[in-house]
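Quick one, tokens below. Sequence please?
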């Protein structure tokens, strides 16, 4: 694994940093005000058009269709770019590199028919519309997807969708929902579910209420509770094959997890800078706060942990590129747990150093604190990933376990 950026990636890193400094950070407070309202700022389209013109568009999609606007990058190449975008929450949208649209694009690129591509994938790749993926349900433990209760019933040339979902990112602004539900009770558990595309304006789609997490909503794509009340869609809206629901969920969740981790590392870098600035400028009991060992240790530990998390994430991206998602399952689960924990610890330290202000709306620390906590739950709670890591851990071989040099038998 080569940690140096190729000249092409270094060029994109420089370009992206300059773009962030020029187009995004000077208007950061407007971005944040809009984000607190669950929106993007009015000028988002103007910024997106500039990013597109400068070749900073659709950088996150390794299976980008060849005719789509944007660069094809490997996961390893995308990692430092995602991190730069992640330094400021909301900015990935400027580059069409944001959740939930990117994982949805990756899923559509994998399975969409040519009609579905024209109707849904192309406008998403162009940044013209937004999308939602609706799996989680309030009434069942949704970290186990076999529990999903939504029904997708074949009726003549249509499917009829009935169920209730919640915590669906971007549900309010999405033009369409990719809904997971049961199509065949008698199939093997992994083939019971399918995904259908439900246009947001279909009769029977009912937005119920926003579902912020610890009072925080994803900038521009707040999560909502949503009901599908006997919603009729044509059979051609099935994504992939009948019974593909689980497989498609995996196609989507792999990149979703990896990109969240890459961006979180960028946000940790912002937090470390904020901690330093604040500790340098405030005095307590006759000393600057950054002169206290306790403060220095908090910052030093954050640096160690960020760099560890980055190395693990880059190595995961590298395995993904070399061997694909199946081979990288353990690494993906490892970064999902490790990065979320690091992010949460660093957000907590930043909050402590800022004092009361850290919990106010005046800094992005509150956002980081909520989001880091959410990251330990969405796209699979920690426990599910820890179980996966354990299961995939190579088991010790017989000769090793039996070797008297390694394990002494009790006398
Ligand atoms: C901000 C945010 C955005 C989200 N966006 C979306 C979205 O766009 N689309 C979507 O479909 N969903 C979305 N979700 C939902 C998210 O994916 C689910 O919350 C997650 O999968 C967990 O499901 P659950 O909440 O039903 O928890 P449950 O499945 O009820 O799990 C609760 C707890 O049970 C324990 N547990 C579960 N399994 C195990 C196990 N195997 N071993 C030990 N303990 C276990 C864990 O402590 C776990 O946290 C979002 C959630 C949040 C917070």
């Amino acid at each position: 694994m080569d940690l140096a950026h190729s000249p092409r990636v270094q060029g994109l890193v420089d370009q992206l940093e300059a773009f962030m400094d020029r187009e995004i950070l000077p208007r950061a407070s407007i971005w944040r005000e809009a984000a607190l309202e669950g929106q993007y700022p009015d000028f988002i389209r103007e910024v997106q058009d500039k990013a597109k013109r400068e070749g900073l568009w659709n950088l996150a999609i390794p299976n980008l269709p060849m005719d789509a606007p944007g660069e094809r990058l490997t996961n390893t190449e995308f990692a430092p770019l995602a991190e730069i975008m992640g330094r400021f929450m909301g900015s990935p949208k400027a580059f069409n590199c944001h959740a939930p649209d990117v994982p949805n694009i990756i899923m559509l690129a994998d399975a969409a028919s040519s009609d579905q591509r024209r109707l849904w994938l192309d406008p998403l790749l162009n940044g013209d519309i937004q999308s939602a993926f609706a799996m989680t349900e309030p009434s069942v433990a949704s970290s186990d997807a076999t529990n999903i209760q939504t029904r997708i019933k074949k009726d003549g040339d249509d499917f009829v969708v009935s169920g209730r979902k919640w915590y669906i990112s971007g549900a309010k602004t999405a033009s369409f929902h990719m809904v997971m539900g049961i199509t065949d009770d008698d199939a093997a558990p992994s083939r019971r579910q399918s995904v259908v595309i439900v246009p947001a304006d279909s009769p029977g789609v009912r937005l119920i209420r926003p579902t912020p997490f610890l009072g925080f909503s994803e900038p521009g794509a707040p999560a909502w509770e949503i009901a599908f009340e006997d919603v009729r869609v044509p059979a051609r809206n099935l994504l992939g094959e009948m019974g593909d629901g689980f497989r498609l969920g995996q196609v989507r969740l792999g990149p979703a997890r990896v990109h969240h981790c890459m961006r979180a590392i960028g946000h940790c870098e912002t937090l470390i800078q904020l901690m330093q600035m604040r500790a340098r400028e405030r005095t307590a009991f006759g000393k600057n706060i950054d002169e206290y060992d306790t403060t220095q240790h908090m910052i030093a530990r954050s640096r160690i942990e960020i760099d560890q998390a980055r190395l693990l994430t880059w190595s995961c991206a590298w395995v993904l590129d070399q061997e694909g998602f199946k081979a990288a399952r353990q690494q993906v689960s490892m970064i999902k747990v490790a990065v979320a924990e690091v992010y949460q610890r660093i957000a907590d330290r930043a909050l402590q150093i800022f004092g009361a202000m850290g919990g106010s709306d005046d800094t992005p620390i509150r956002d980081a604190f909520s989001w880091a906590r959410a990251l330990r739950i969405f796209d699979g709670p920690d426990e599910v990933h820890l179980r996966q890591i354990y299961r995939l851990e190579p088991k010790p071989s017989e000769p090793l376990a039996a070797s008297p040099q390694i394990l002494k038998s009790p006398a």
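The radius of gyration is 23 Å. The domain at 246-392 is CATH 1.20.140.10 (Butyryl-CoA Dehydrogenase, subunit A; domain 3).
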